[in-house]
Amino acid sequence: MARTRTADLAMSLPHGVSGIHVLPADHHDGPWESIIVPPGTKERLLGTAVLVLRHGRALQSLSGPPHGLVVLAGPPGTGKTTLCQGLAQAAAMAVANRGATTFVEVDPHDFPSEMLGESQRGVRRLFAETLPELAARRPHTVVLVDEVEALAVRRSTASFETNPVDVHRATDAVLSGLDALRATCPHVLLLATTNFTEGVDEAFLSRADLVLRLDLPDTDVLARIIRSSLVELAALWPSLRGLVEDDALHAKLADCCAGFDGRRTRKAILAAVAQRPDLAENPERLTVDDLFTAVEAFRPGPP
């Protein structure tokens, strides 16, 4: 029965929309606090978001008003999507005294089509009809588009093998739609992520109020991620608290994790308690040696 309700809900969503949520919501707490990024990153993102959500209409009077577009770029595993989801909740909490926020998740892979002009029509419908209708429900709206390079394809490098006419028209529709959305719905914040900045159209990037690159974490950030992962394990098995308090251990493990992304680092720490059946049965037996062994096993081998 639950599966049927989920399927019915998915079928009722507008084309290209994979999720609609009302924020702030308790079940959206967590990502903003748990994700670890360089100092100042969250403040800059939240400041940009609150400015658009709170003062978007007033800022239209400026000669160069914001587009309400933030782009997070960087390799996979650097936390772009998680950070956007957390930002939506944090921003919604910051403006909650003026009303709730609608959080819309868009799947750009729903739009490309082999039928000439179909992608363009779908994109135009998204920006001209779907998003304005959703934005009319509440005082604030945040839209997340993951892997935006699938929607705003860089026209200067579009391959002739992938129907470049439709690619150009779809990207044109994104740009004109973004401009129109900003004019009619200045309280909308659009968050976009990309693993491949070179694949995103230059005109789309030029409209962004903030393009933030998230690189692979350095050893200081890795050490904080490792400690955070151990804190979570110690919450389940308190005897591991000694590992949490060992800053020297975190630094040494971080050196061993050099080149890892945040996701891979957390998975390596979790994998330490799954190396042997006795550890999986009782993670309180976890040792320093187990941690180093797990990290070493997660290092990529020769190609």
Mean pLDDT: 90
Q: Which spans of ≥5 residues are poorly predicted at pLDDT below 50? A: 1-10
Structural class, judged by helices and strands?
Answer: alpha/beta
- Architecture per CATH nomenclature, i.e. the level-2 architecture of the largest domain: 3-Layer(aba) Sandwich
Helix-strand pattern: HEHHEHEHEHEHEHHHHHH
Strand content: 5-15%
In DSSP terms (H or I, runs of 4 or more residues), the helix count works out at 13
Q: Enter the CATH topology name of the largest domain.
A: Rossmann fold
- What order do the strands of the largest sheet run in, or round the barrel if closed? 1-3-4-5-2-6
Gap from first CA to last CA: 47 Å
Oligomer: single chain
What would CATH call the homologous superfamily of the largest domain?
A: P-loop containing nucleotide triphosphate hydrolases
Radius of gyration: 22 Å
Query: Level of helix content?
Result: 40-55%
What is the number of beta strands? 6
What's the CATH first level of the largest domain? Alpha Beta
Name the shape in a single word: elongated
What's the arrangement of secondary structure elements?
Layout: H1 2-12, E1 17-23, H2 31-34, H3 41-59, E2 69-73, H4 80-94, E3 101-106, H5 118-135, E4 140-145, H6 164-184, E5 188-194, H7 202-206, E6 210-213, H8 219-236, H9 241-244, H10 247-256, H11 262-271, H12 277-281, H13 288-298
Parallel strand pairs: 2-5, 2-6, 3-4, 4-5
Antiparallel strand pairs: 1-3
